[in-house]
Amino acid sequence: MKRYDAVVVGGGPAGITAALYLCRSGLSVALVEMLAPGGQILKTEHIENYPGFPKGINGWEMADAFAAHLDAYQLDRYNDAITSMVFDSGVWSLVVGKQTLAGRTVLVCSGANPRPLGLPNEAQLTGRGVSYCALCDGNFFRDQVIAVVGGGNSALEEALYLSRIAKKVYLVHRREGFRAAKIYQDKLKATPNIEIVLDTVVSQLLGDKDLQGVTLHNVKTGEDREQALEGLFVFVGYDPQNAFLPQGLEVDAKGFIVTDCEMRTSLPGLFAAGDIRSKQCRQVTTAVGDGATAATAAFSYLEQLEA
Fold this sequence. Notes:
29% strand
């Protein structure tokens, strides 16, 4: 069993930032990430609200820059899934694939996954017309009729991106107004091939082998109508990646980790940062701030152990 001062779980903006700060503090660090570094920003076409980039930056470019910065430091990387965590005698033991790591501290930056609509045949039609990533799948629907579901920043950003590819985009939102930033709402209204459908939910997916359309249900009038579609992009929130978390850890009603302002959790030596945290704002900027704060708190924790 290899021992580390800190084990960082997740290679998105929060995890990379945390690992960077920990390495710069002279600690032994392991970074566990199943996929490529970058997290959700790899699935984002363009980021316009990160300080220092007034014209914006492509998601993949930002991910590459983050990863390249961390490459300058010495740490061990593990590309496998964590299946369990146990705290015993002041040390965390993490099962990573077929091996076990020991960490005096653990920083959970595992993020969250796109939330499905929860419709009966949604899983069957995923990849067959239903998608949760505009950047990944948008080009398959060039010059076709599609819909985007959601009302937050992600939904509007991706609808704007898809409007440059698709012939027609329906933006379906269950409420009368959007939660997204005004700048996105203004751009949305100025885009001629986007039609806004408010007070409406997708109640049924039509098609067996491939998506043929959807049933739209107006939550105010109770009316239903069918809309022919070739693609449906879902952006209705995220669910935490928390299957490996230990028992006794305090989480909120949705399963996100509860922390204090220093990213400390309810368990000793365990910190959380980024989208896995229970919080309102989930952006790259907040993930980076969380990661730096968690790393600083973890370093202080270790110093107190040795005092």
